[in-house]
Amino acid sequence: VRELETQLGHMRSPVSELSLEEEMLGISVPRRLAAQDKNLFRIRNLEKEKKETLERLTGEHEALKKEHEDLKTKFDGSKARNKFLSNDLKTLKMQMVTLLDKGKHDDELIDALLVTPDLSSASLLSLSAV
């Protein structure tokens, strides 16, 4: 009997090693249940932490997605504004060139008109002399 008990004692895992008296008194069952309860409690805590972490990360992910969409909208708006301003600048440059050309032609016309009275008065003098 002792020999079988020692063999049985060697086969047990270190977690469930109990003294012969504890086995006879039935103390092993509550200790095993306590260990199982402890493990179940740890598992539940780990699952709870995992769930909370997942919820937190999901919330952060959603917030980052919203922020990304907001920034993308702002970027698209600034891109459109830059395109509009570039086109406006191009139009203004073309108007400046047109105005400079017009100013040049106006100066030429003024010079021509200033010369014309001299010619007109010379013509009138020559006509009146006749």
TrEMBL record:
Keyword Plastid in record: no
One of the record's GO cellular component terms: centriolar satellite
GO terms for biological process, alphabetical: cytoplasmic microtubule organization; non-motile cilium assembly
Keywords in alphabetical order: Coiled coil
Keyword tRNA-binding in record: no
Coiled coil residues, start to end: 43-81
Name of the protein described by the UniProt record: Uncharacterized protein
